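Good morning C.,

I know you're traveling, so I'll keep this short. The sequence:
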Amino acid sequence: MAQDLENIGLAAVDEFINTFNSRNADQWANSLNFPHVRPSPFGPVNVAETKEIYVDQASYDRIIDSGWDHTEWDYKRVIHTSSDKIHVAGQWSRYTKVGDKILTTPVVYVVTNNDGHWGIQSRFGCDYAGEDDTSGLESRAFNLLTTFVFQYNKKSEAVCRECLNYPHFEIGVGHLTRNATLTDYSIGSEEIDIRSMVALQTGKHSINVGMDITLIADSANSDFQAVINITDRDDHLGIQAWSLLEPADVE
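The tokens, ready to paste straight into the viewer:
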């Protein structure tokens, strides 16, 4: 089962790149699930509620003007799997017709099964740092997540709100939970235990972190795997988005 889910996740992101290369916005949108959002460290974070809206807003003009001919994977790998959600870390580069590299971008893809359609619900964009030292941002991001969890368990809602960047998104299957402003976010009654934390992709202004966590509630404890998108926007390091899944049974 686990291998099947990995194949599904990789096929979904391949479809995304292949249809993007087709220059056909309608085909490209078919690789996505909606509502769709792409958090990143730069510019506005916009939500496309439907395929029609996405196609209407899509334009290749600026990309073609840069000299772009096609996009290729640098790498892609499945991070987490469940029966209805898969996290895939990938990095792509854009090339000219003669093979000159234009742009490289690391992304974590949240792939979901929405009413039988496996597609990308969200893309956690991360700027490319190349060979630059990113250890400082990694340390700050890990401290931020540790602080958030500590304050969450203390039920210090005001402090937790300050740990986020807005709009903040929780990525579900076929839906998004959006906290437009600081006062929209509220914490739950459970406690969080961090079992592991690793930097998946680190740029100059953003980082994608993978986590294994346990949610501790009165009735039962539940294990989850998560990807967290952290951005440095307007000189504020904050959690921009997260996606949680319950790991697939691999037996």
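Safe travels,
E.
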